[in-house]
Write a structure and sequence with these properties.
The complex is a heterodimer. By secondary structure, chain A is an alpha/beta fold. Among the domains of chain A are: 2-15 and 137-256, no CATH class; 370-446, Alpha-helical ferredoxin (Fumarate Reductase Iron-sulfur Protein, Chain B, domain 2), CATH 1.10.1060. Chain A has 11 helices and 19 strands. In chain A, the strands form 4 sheets. Chain A has a 6-stranded mixed β-sheet. A 6-stranded mixed β-sheet of chain A has the order 2-16-15-19-17-18. A 4-stranded antiparallel β-sheet of chain A has the order 3-9-8-5, with no helix packed on it. In chain A, helix 8 runs antiparallel to helix 9 and helix 8 crosses helix 11. Chain A is globular and about 65 Å long. In chain B, helix 5 (130-140) packs parallel to helix 7, helix 7 packs antiparallel against helix 16 and helix 11 (255-267) packs parallel to helix 14. Chain B has helices at 2-15, 25-35, 54-84, 90-123, 130-140, 148-162, 176-187, 214-220, 227-233, 238-243, 255-267, 273-293, 306-311, 315-322, 333-353, 360-386. Chain B has 2 domains: 54-192; 228-375, no CATH class. The chains are: A alpha/beta, B mainly alpha. The interface between A and B is large, with 81 and 63 residues. The complex binds iron/sulfur cluster. The site of iron/sulfur cluster has 15 residues of chain A, from helix 8.
Chain lengths: 447, 392
């Protein structure tokens, strides 16, 4: 087992950590597909409003990469397709039938069957089964093309962004499934790396499959981070990444022959009635699965972690590849001259408020920018939270100056888009988005 | 509080597009965000943000400058009373000092603030908090004898040429306070050449009082025997220099007060300890080198030991408060140290070798401001070599 020490990681200590209890919340009346959930997808619709779909019927494919086929997570009638700016498809809403039916796929339920099928038919199964898009290919962090073979796959057993699903909960009783999943990955590539947090209590049960033990807070166990610290030369640059919860869905598809619609997610936040793990269905509406203590103030729903997640109002739906819903207060509370206070109640990375003296276990956070937008004052705080050894302020400046060569040599493509530099910046610069957009531009240019 | 907030909110439409006072929006914005926390919500990127903003950042520098400011007021009064042979009772001394110093600070803030707001209105951007620091830093580098109109011209020059022509805080490469200081120094050398820096009260001057600063004494070269003896004879004992009860610029005389400021900057991580350490090591190294060459034929200044060099004049003040200005410093940790070190070396060289510029620090830092991007560039190239390239 190789030890990986990731530097410059940071735990923002978000309050209302979800408990390990799993609450069933699968009784719902509608589901939706959200193309935006996978960046850069340009959907080509295969179904129209009013048409019937089953669980597993393809609803849209990506115009550029037809391996990215998205299946209906419910059986019923397409009731609405909502468009955003420039006729971009935002939501495809499906009203569920009482009795739901499934599209049946080929089963691969054990290792013997797995050994009998070819790599190509395995890939086909993943594409047809709608789960190919769970992989990301580095350096761009987007789903790979069908034809590519990864030099290595990095499987992370625990997503470590605050309030992500706890691997103890999702792997409870599923360890053999996980091991089967690793076999599937081994069929796709020659090298499968499995990383686990050093303090994970189930580490010992998995010692036969784990290859990397990771030290550090968020984002130490992002597959991209492990790849960065693991690689010795350029050969592994285009490796793939995947999380345990994704892999379990692939195993479910193979074993049951049906598109898996249920999964465990976390729902957490200061106003959520019970911050905990929930068993929900893919594409559920927040209005049907999230219960708040009160509805007095406005909230923001964030799908994924608070640092990287996609946000929406109360008409949002959880997407294809999202495993947590964080609910934060979104209203404004006036506070007189906060910047001259001692600030025992202010969360901060550095030592500019006295809160560091208290060593509080967690902080209730909201969506406030906590300041005004300014130009970079070169305070050099951001490099302290960059695990990829990038100097975000320099990278940002060379990206904005459109100097692609310089940006790349500074590590543009190594960025795992963790969002920590956004969090710490006193000038409130959206460093991550600036880098993200540049990466996407580059991707479009070469593909 | 709610009341004040609601009142402000009611006025807001006046300043919005189409409102009567639309042009003054930056002023309104500055006022509102000064009184209350920002209303802005996160849009892209991380949904949660650190409580630290540029206001907090800059106000901490102001806090670190306060000990120097308060002591400066006391000392300005004290020197004036000594010169006039008046009583050194603390209250009357403070009163005299306040009457001298507070107007200088007020003029600096008002005139500088006006320039800042004017540019914000023309350029339609928010008022930058960096000004809170510049507006105080500049007066502290001035002698308390300076005419107020020079303060006004100086700060206006510093804000406009040192900062706004480059596009405001964050885009400038020179330290605006130092730009202002350098401008005053070169335009009106008669007033602040580093000779007589004590405020005089109604021309009452006791016999034999010169009011010269330690540097003027040291640079004059009119010494027979050891320079330190001459300094001590003129009242510049090491103890006085460290406490700061000597003639000099308002905020720079007291090594102790500067150190308190340094502790605040380092403890809050607002000022870079690397730059400070580099600066002090640089100054010590250069002084020791000069000591090697000290002899009968050399300038007497060469023979001063590091502790004297550090506690005289604006050496520490410049290293702690001027060199650490993040905007005009390099951004990489290693470069910060190198930058500080070079400032230390240059500052001592200029101060010693060219008695016409007894305050070498100002020039040393401005010069290194210009080279800061170069240091970063070199260090960056070394860093880049260590990366595994991620080409496409
Ligand atoms: S944290 Fe923000 S202001 Fe500070 S150096 Fe980085 S980008 Fe610039």
């Amino acid at each position: 087992m190789k030890k990986i020490f990731v530097k410059n990681t940071y735990d923002i200590k978000l309050s209302d950590k979800p408990s390990n209890q799993v609450i069933d919340q699968t009784k719902i009346t509608k589901v939706a597909l959200i193309p935006d959930n996978i960046p850069n997808t340009k959907p080509r619709l295969l179904k129209k409003v009013g048409e019937k779909v089953q669980i597993g019927t393809p609803v849209y494919v990506d115009k550029k990469n037809d391996a990215l086929c998205f299946l209906s997570p419910g059986s019923g009638t397409i009731s609405d397709i909502q468009y955003g700016k420039r006729r971009k498809i935002e939501k495809v809403i499906i009203n569920l039938d009482k009795e739901e039916t499934f599209v049946e796929f080929e089963k691969v339920s054990n290792e013997a069957e797995l050994n009998n099928i070819s790599r190509d038919s395995l890939v086909d199964l993943l594409v047809k089964g709608g789960l190919w898009s769970l992989f990301v290919e580095y350096p761009f962090g987007l789903p790979p093309k069908k034809e590519t073979v990864a030099p290595a796959i990095y499987l992370s057993l625990d997503e470590d962004e605050p309030h992500s699903v706890n691997s103890e909960v999702i792997l409870d009783g599923s360890i053999s499934d996980l091991k089967f999943g690793i076999k599937i990955l081994e069929k796709l590539t020659n090298e499968v790396n499995v990383s686990i947090r050093q303090d994970n209590p189930i580490k010992d049960q998995l010692s036969s499959v784990v290859t990397h033990e990771v030290y550090g807070d968020y984002p130490a166990n992002k597959p991209g981070t492990v790849l960065f610290y693991d690689k010795k030369d350029m050969t592994k640059n285009k490796s793939w990444g995947i999380y345990a919860q994704d892999l379990l869905r692939i195993v479910q598809l193979f074993k049951s022959g049906r598109y898996p619609i249920e999964r465990v997610v976390t729902i957490a936040g200061p106003r959520v009635r019970q911050s905990s793990h929930y068993k929900i269905r893919e594409g559920s509406a927040v209005s049907e699965i999230v219960q708040l203590k009160d509805s007095e103030k406005e909230v923001r729903y964030i799908f994924g972690g608070v640092l990287t997640g996609r946000s929406s109002g109360d008409d949002g739906f959880i997407g294809y590849k999202e495993y947590s819903i964080n609910v934060l207060n979104d209203d404004y509370q006036p506070e007189l001259v906060p910047f001259v206070k001692l600030g025992f109640d202010k969360h901060t990375f550095g030592k500019t408020y006295f809160s560091w003296l208290l060593n509080k276990p967690d902080w209730q956070m909201n969506t406030s920018l906590n300041g005004g937008e300014r130009s970079c004052i070169n305070c050099s705080i951001c490099p302290n939270v960059c695990p990829m050894d990038i100097l975000p302020q320099f990278l940002m400046k060379s990206v904005l100056a459109n100097d692609v060569e310089e940006s790349m040599s500074q590590g543009l493509l190594d960025c795992v888009e963790c969002g920590l530099c956004d969090y710490v910046c006193p000038s409130k610069i959206e460093l991550t988005s600036i880098v993200q957009e540049k990466k996407l531009d580059l991707y479009k240019e070469i593909s | 509080m709610k009341f004040l907030y609601n009142f402000l909110k009611k006025q807001e439409p006046l300043f919005h597009k189409g409102g009567k006072l639309e042009k003054l929006y930056p002023l309104f914005e500055a006022g509102q965000t000064f009184c209350f926390n920002a209303e802005l919500r996160t849009k892209k990127g991380s949904n949660v943000r650190d409580s630290l903003d540029t206001k907090r950042y800059m106000i901490l520098v102001v806090l670190a400058l306060l000990p120097c400011t308060l002591f400066g007021i006391y000392n300005a009064g004290l020197q004036a009373h000594i010169a006039a042979g008046l009583s050194q009772d603390i209250f009357s001394v403070l009163l005299t000092g306040a009457l001298k110093v507070v107007p200088i600070i007020l003029v600096s803030y008002t005139v500088g603030g006006l320039c800042e707001v004017l540019f914000c209105i023309i350029r339609k951007h928010e008022v930058n908090e960096g000004f809170l620091v510049t507006g105080l830093l500049f007066p502290l580098t001035l002698p308390s004898t300076i005419p107020l109109w020079q303060v006004a011209v100086g700060i206006a020059f510093g804000v406009i040429v040192g900062k706004e022509v480059f596009g405001g805080s964050g885009r400038n490469f020179l330290n605006p306070a130092l730009t202002a200081r350098a401008f005053v120094f070169f335009t009106y050398p008669a007033y602040i050449s580093g000779e007589v820096w004590t405020s005089l009260i109604k021309d009452k001057l006791i016999d034999g009082y010169s009011g010269a600063t330690a540097l003027a004494v040291a640079a004059s070269g009119e010494t027979s025997g050891k320079l330190t003896d001459t300094l001590i004879e003129s009242g510049f004992t090491l103890k006085n220099l460290i406490i700061g009860t000597v003639p000099g610029s308002i905020g720079e005389t007291s090594a102790i007060m500067v150190m308190i400021g340094a502790v605040i900057l380092i403890a809050t991580k607002v000022g870079s300890w690397r730059t400070m350490l580099g600066g002090i090591l640089g100054a010590i190294t250069m002084t020791l080198i000069l000591n090697l060459f000290a002899g009968d034929s050399s300038l007497p200044f060469f023979s001063l030991t590091p502790i004297w060099q550090l506690s005289m004049g604006s050496c520490l003040f410049a290293i702690v408060f001027m060199a650490t200005d993040p905007v005009s410093s390099p951004g990489i940790e290693v470069s910060k140290f190198i930058y500080g070190f070079l400032i230390g070396i240059l500052g001592i060289i200029i101060r010693t070798a060219n008695p016409a510029y007894p305050e070498g620090w100002m020039l040393a830092i401005l010069l290194m401001n210009v080279f800061a991007p170069l240091i970063d560039h070199v260090v960056m190239q070394i860093r880049i070599k260590k990366r595994i390239p991620n080409a496409i």
